[in-house]
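Protein 1 of 2
SEQ + STRUCT:
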Amino acid sequence: MEQKTNDHKRMPRRYRKIRVTKLVGSDPVEFEQPQYEVTVPENTRADHLLRLSARVRASAVPVVYRITESNAASHFWIHPSTGILSLVSPLDFEKKKKYELVVEAQAGEESSEARVIVRVEDQNDHAPVFPTSLHETQITEEDDRHLPKTILTQVTATDADAGEFGRLTYRLSGDGVEGSEEESAFAIDPLTGAIRLLRPLDRDPPHGRAQWNLRVTATDGELEAHTDVRVNVKDVNDNAPFFPSRTTTAAVSEDTPKGTVVARMVATDPDDPREGNNARLVYSLEKNVIDESSGSPIFAIDSELGVITTALCCLDREKTQRYVIQVVATDGGGLKGTGTVVVNVDDVNDVPPRFSRPEWTLDVSESLDPDNVLATLTVVDQDVTNDFAYRVVPNSGRGWQMFTVEGRRRGGPGGDLRSLTSLDYEKPIHRKGFRFKVEVTDMGRNGWDDKYHVDGAWVNLRLVDENDNVPTYISRHARLTLPEDTPIGTHLTTFTARDLDGGGQAIRYQVAPASDPGRLFDVDGSGAVRLVGGLDREVADTHSVLVWAVDQGTPPRTATATLSIDVTDVNDNPPFLSEPREVQVTENSEAQLVARVKLGDPDDWRQGHGPPFTISLDPRAPPHVTDSVRVTLDRRGDDGRGVGVVWTRAALDREERPALLVPLVVGDAGWPSLTATVTLTLHVADVNDNPMAPAAKTVTVHTMQRQGTAVPLGRVYVQDPDDWDAASKTYAWSDPQAGFFLDTSSGHLSMAPSTRDGRYELSFKVSDDSQGQFGVKANVTVEVKTMSSDDVKHATPITLAVDPGYLVKAEKPLKENQEPSMESAGSRVWLVTPGVINADHALLYRKSELSNILGVEVKTVGVGTCQEHFVDKVHVPAGTEKRSTADSECENGCWARTVLSSGFSIVDANTSAVVGPRLEVQTGCGCDNSSPSPDTTCTPYTCLNGGRCVSTSTGTECICPHGTWGSHCKVLSRHFEGGGGRGAGGGSMSKGAWAWVPPIPPCAEVHISLEVLSTTKSAALLYSGPEQGTEQKQGNRDLMLLELSQGRPVLLLDLGGGPVTLTLNSSASLADNTWHRIDLIWKDELMEMIVDLCLGSSWDEPPTLASAAQNRTSAPVLPDAHACRGAARLPRNTRVLNTSGVLQVGGLVYPLPALKTEGKSAPRHPPHFRGCIRNLRINGKLVDLGSGVLSSASSPGCPAADCLANHLHCGLHGRQVFT
């Protein structure tokens, strides 16, 4: 039976559970519980255990409690009055585990007894104990028998605790004990403490040790004890001696006596020196050096100490500079180790110095400064510890006092000859030359007095004249005052210079480019300066022209003269419209003053070449202008300069004509007066005075279905003559469609970029509160067509001579009563031709036909040259950045290319609109020789000439057919049939052979090379120039023509400064049915032509394609008469070939434009080429001559080359046949 007393709140929790057994019945005095049980942890100090309570019938009689049995040790005490049983002294579980007390309760004469059982709870109060702090054992190293094996069994501990706290476990730590048994050398039994050896032990360093220290830990789960274990390893002779350094270097003087210590060799043996003779070493020389004369060894060694000494007297460094000997160290067990000693013999100054030659003859430039070394007088001395000294022997010869000899500061032995004063060839005494004697000593014991250690040599020195004088002008400055209409070709002045060097060298004159950026002046070989360009005071009223006089020395020296020119004004500019240039008047308004027009004039007003101005309406103005506008002159306006007063005569109607171009005739006060017609643009501001009408619109969208912003489609259109009332209109869907978005306030429509191809019919309602119109119908048809990004990137731009709106407008022609807009340079249209390579060439070839088909003039085809500023002239959709590059900003060349920009371009013409990806032309300075980035996926443009594109883990790869070359399958040769043949596409435009390839890049340095095989003596090989079939225009005269004339190459080059012809008058013709290579180079105002790389033979055995493609050249040479190489100067400041379109190979489609320098008005047409051309390279890049090339009467490959490769002559049209 279990009960809980009410005293549990006051007692500790460990005493609360009490088991009671009733022993007595109902007596006068009776315990509430006949038996009590309580548990007490051992070692508990004095504490209350429980309270006993007895009932007494006579309540007035007090109860007295006492312990009557089992308390002999007095561990317990009970309070006589309260019955509280207390612990007086600690209990010990290990001595006694349970106490049974008998407690008596007495009230008067009556009493009662109860039994209290006190159980003792065990506590972990004893730590484990090892009998000794150190255990030691010994094993033999490298003993692997009976592994694993027990090496210690007595490493055990005791614990005085009984029960669970007396059970011990063991663990091991220390040397050779790792995380797992596979890696450890020792292990311990966790229950018995026995230590086992798991693998053989190594005693010797570097990885072994003579003593392995372990620690054993015993634990009862809470408390621990430790003891150390020392495992001593007994050595065995298992290590050979070794020298710490395999090679020891020592030094000994060459005059050292016998017995001199050279070095001491000390070997190391890891074995135990206390274990027998395991580490006792004996030294010996295994490979000694033997003296050839005596046959005796040169060195000896002490067998115990390892000290090496010389075994004979006096070494000779000049005979042997170094000895190599081998030392052996042997231990007591016969194991050996070897080391090498390198003995360097130190030098003693015992050999005299000698000059390398007895006499020196020198040619010395007069321009060398005194500090410069004129010559190094080399000295030979077999000794290495020399202290050389040099001197010029006094009074030894002419000019001895002007020179000195000093020891070289670096390098081998020798003396540097220097002059003490400046040398000048122009001084007669110096011009005769010098002769003197020099001496050297290695500073033996007596210095210069020791004649055995002194040697002498003679020096003969002649001065060489140098270009050390700058040309001298007779007059270095001239000033002129010229009117700005001074004729071109006028002689301005002459600067004459002379040069004192070389008896008067030839002098070349040149205008400094930076002082003449406009290229207005030129100077000839006599120094005469002429005007070669037109002066313009309004551009520059002064010029400071620097004229250089450059001699022919190396390096050339330059003198500068200055021509200062003041330019006076000529009345050559009519007045211009200053302000305003555009004005606005509201339609339907009454006649009113529109503007007071002010004029300006760039001429010099101080000379009367300006105001007062006159202004009037042009009498040739069209009737609708004269009927609407009148102009008067206010002579007092603008401070007396004169102002034109413009009035309207009546109300204007914007719907009839949105703008008036008012022609004004203006004149200045010069004599004679200059007049001009200027245009004032009068815009008619719209008033919402017309109602709307339903209308329909068609939008054609070309998209690439890429992610991004919405595609703009233009504005929803309703027919309304008013066009400034957009703000008063509101727009709403009649039937909304997914993927299309409407701005209800502006009417602008857009589309999701991922919209699929197809035709979409959209309907809208348009309202105008001001007109009281609501729900006017407006329908929009959207046609979506997808294009690939690769096709778009290869699109070809063409420029049409028409406004963009005209191209997309449904109603053509424009209204007759519409005021003609200001002249537009045209519109750029990008044509996408999927999969067609060189589409721009085909369009350029059919340019005239294309113009006829379109009914619009095609002005340009392709990107054009980067120098052209057409980007600023043609229409560019809103938001497109304009980019252009000027000649003056790109001295080293420029580039232009098509790029795909973000967003879309839109041309909106009310009833129709066209939307497409935004393309633009980027330009920049420098020569763009970079290769296009490789394709990451296969496209129709990846592989040429039938190559098959395959995708790889790194991108793409072309599987090329036979006869092609390179990663893109280029064809490197082409055959031309000469005259006859039909044009590309079957046309008859050309009657001869030709092929078109990409143009020459506009770079300041160009290198073109090609190889030709032909019997044709006269033919065009390469041409790049102005568009043929048209007259040569000023500013667009650049051209390059390479042709054969009588079998010899002729190069005609014009970089804008005038044509220059270069002809190689070689004795051999290139039309000999063998391969010949021609290289063309131009840079730094010099052009050069080389035949067969000046190898002196033909090119029948060409280098491999890899080497042929390198296309590098050495520095250009000056013009010479060599038969294989020629060069010519180009006009100054000409750097870049500014041509666009194509490079024509093998012939010209049209005759050449007439050249001014040829004195002919009729164009000429060089014959077409008959033969083969291969390995055409432009700035190191091989040009494809394969099937994608636009051509006539030519084909890829060269059949005749196969014959030549096998030493057969089949003729140009022959083909090798295999039988």
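Protein 2 of 2
SEQ + STRUCT:
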Amino acid sequence: MTSATARSPNTPGQAGLRRFYLEDTISVTLDGRETVGVVTRTWHDLNDDEVVWEEIDEAVPGAVATKEDLSTFQRTGNPPRHFLLFSPSSPFHPPSLVHESECKLLDRAFMFGDYVKRSSDTAKSGVVISVDSAVALRPTYFDANHPELWPPSVETRGVPGSELELYNHWGVEDLVIYKNSWVGVVKDVIEEVVIKLQDDSVVMVDDPELLVNHTPVQLGQEGQDSTIADAQGRRTNSGRRSSTTRRMNDVDEPAAVLCVGQPVNTTKANLRRGKWILGAYNADIPAEGVIVAVKPMVIYVDWIVQNMMVPGRFVPIPPPPRGIDLQAEEHNITKFTRATGGLKAVNGEAYTNLLTSGGATLQIGDRVLFSDIDAAEQKYQGTIKKIPKRAVQGFETNIFVVCETKACVRVQWQDNSETVEDSCALIPYLNVDEHEVWPGEMVLIKGDTTGATEKFDSQLNPSFAPTSTESTPNAPQFQSLFLDALAHPEGGNLDYMRPSRVGVVQSADADARVAKVRWFKDPHVEIVSLYTLPGSRTGGLDEKVEDMSFYEIFAHQAIGLGRGDLVIIAPPIPEQSRITSNLQSSYPAQQLGLPGMHELENQNTALLNQILGSDDSRSMHLFNLSTALNNHSHPQLQTVARMLDQIPGLAEAVRNQNQSPIAPEPGEVVENTYLGTPLDWIGEVVDLGLDGLVTVRLGALSEPRDIRLPIERLIVVYTDDMDMSEGDVSDDEDDMSDLDEPRPIMEVITYEGGERLDNGDEGDWDTEESDDSDDEDDSDIEMPDAPVFNSDSPSTAQEPVPRTPPPIPDNVPAPEAITLPSNQTSPPRFMVLDSPVPADHKFLGQASGPPSTGAMKIIMREHKILAQSLPEGIFVRTWESHLDLLRVLIIGPLNTPYERAPFVFDFCIPPTYPQEPPKAFFHSWTNGMGRVNPNLYEDGKICLSLLGTWHADTSSETWIPNQSTMLQVFVSIMALVLVREPWYNEAGFTIYEGAKDVSLNSQQYSEKAYILSREFVRHALVYPVHGLEDVVGWLYITPSPDGPNLLRLVVEKTQEVMDRSEAPGAERLTIDDTPEAVGRLSKGAMVLLKRTMVALKGMLDGQRRAPQ
């Protein structure tokens, strides 16, 4: 990637440059004329799925970009730093690669529910709760044969968006309901085009793809060219802005824009085969005309889910066909009206018309019409001229193109204040920190173990099996089916939670990272995967408000609703049917197969009574939920259904309730079962109340209305960033290509204890082998290259390194491997133990039998490398009974947030080694607080291309058979995962390196990494690290003058960080100002750190009091 800072002298300076974002409306001077358009690609985009190669291929360099810049952009799809792709609204201009200094921001598109900030260096963020826009319009209809119909050539400015509606009724991403049973999202729209010819005949052409742009000579006169050109705009099925623009040259080319008023020509065969609406085909009439209508004919829909919350028993209905003929099915489909605002408008007044609230979706290039054209003609006299339908053979041609927008938004900030802002004064909050919370959000306590919290996986949790089944004859079969469903979900394991505390955020202090929370008094909320189980309830809120650290709470997906989420509304469960307190304690164990199954009654009916009590409503809801999810295409949701199916006697209980489904009439097909029932079962979240109630807009009604409901009655079925396409859900845990994954760690960097871990010179991996006479059996084995670490000579490395960690400023201490004393008390870095393999070793149950002779030679070779070359700060243990299993302790490098903290990993050398990399597992001790590092997952996954858990761009970045070694893996983790600023290890975040406006993001991540790694120290001292107990004790506990005494150092250094963070002026501290790269710790971080310090100081005091 070419950097804008190392360029020719004509490159503008980078200081003070405004950052632009996707869909920004900007102006750029092209060919000496100010041209308006939108940003369609920036240098800091992370989503490669949105790259439009056709547009990139057509791009030309702007005033600053060089041919090399353009070539790099067209090869990679990524603009050089501080460049962006500008798509003019005028099709006479091609897309251009322009520098940020060439651009002027005119408007910034925000949608209802977007998260925003005032600047990137401030912590406080907010959510857009309403949007208002005023637009400038130009008419699209110009008929060369009827100039008397031409409207005025001037723009109509200052038109409120609420006065307009989109010309195209159906568009991509619209939500549609079919026969009141299935809801889906539109993914494509097929349109037919009607044109009027010179003789005023009208025809729907046979193939719209054969239409080409045509600009008659008489329309190209001075004063008309700009209007006509800009009127063409860009085409998109939805009538909204598309990311693709095609230019019109002086010669005719296929029409990328099909809109009313566009002059086109085509082939005579396309006319002859068309559907003639007025007149008939005449070969003497030229095959050119003007478009008078663009009609959507077919929509293609990805069906999301059938309504599962119905009165009576659920009737499963097959998904509708993906392609829906709009003419044939018009009476069977309903378009869901999406909200463009919450409870009130930008001016603070309540909306009076929920169908037109805000008008916030209008953007440059949209085709619109006035809701009342007669009123508009009166209001905008001189600029709006109504074209009567009778003058255009009955077609509606009063269509306008949006050529300019100006938006303002109402924002609810984290402190619960509200302000009205010019959209250009805000920036989108794109890389939202995982610990952020906002007012109205419902939260749980991280690591809440007071209620039941289990992961359904019979292999990982053998204790789920009942200890006895003698008193439960049918339990073994139920247990087998149940555990099979849970242990083999196509979408991954499922979690069951019954949190003891559920609360609502009242406000949040983003700088202090502390939220004020009110807790529900007596909640009973049960969560499986992404669903709250029917019968859950939150109840009333306590009046007390409690300060909670951001790091202590989180919004679980099952209850973490956001504005704009599409939800299904469950019928209310009568109060007398709610679960009794006795059942609250027994229900999870009996229903879900947790420990305690053996205590159930002998008969399934008794079991069902314990699960459901006398709650007929709950059994019906559970049965309906199970049946509906079985009818879903998403694997994890199907797994929830299989779990519910295994409740003994559930189906029989429902049958005994004599609740029949809404039966279709005789001869009527099953898909018509719910036709005619109210469309009040689906809605959109528009507000999150501080009282715990959620406002849902019933957008499928002819007149939408708002209702307020408790969270337990809502099930999220669709969000704008959700991908429900079939085939996109993978159960391959090694598929790490999604953008929410961390970036690959590809390099192998060696170092010597106490030296810098980054920016080292590249050298050779050189394994120094001893001339031990006992090694003759290995003479026929080619030893792989491996790093050398010794105290006498610097290590070298020669390994393809696609990129290295970012340069560290000269005044900032670089990461260093910890230097440990070497004496008689020092434990060996590598050791083979004669004790049993610890029961908590991840791969103990997966290890194969005794290795073959050849495999044993390979294992012994690896052991030899480790025995000779392990650097300081890495300890490895293996076992005589399982030489293929290893446990590794890595001490966090100094001058990083991980310094002096223990990190434990399990490895297995598989029979396929070294053709395939070793298996690896990270022991995460974060207790639900998120990852300690982007590459180290809470579930134990390690994202490292060397391990094959990340797709590598070249073969040199992957595991190389007979060359790569275990030692390389260990050193890569220490040097390239446990780095000074781990935030940049997130996927794609390398593009931000050196950008000052992301320093806050990096500092917040390092803060979390620091407090979690201090907790790792406590955890390792409280819970023995089996196999490494002596090493952990020597490192941290042993009070010896010549020992490491890491516990004392951890306590002392942490106290320094805490004192520094509370000192006057601490708010100015940054990562670069502090050796451990954490800057000033927030109040929320200090809450957790002080708790950890109490425990660590207690251990240190106990160490000092212990007899010597």
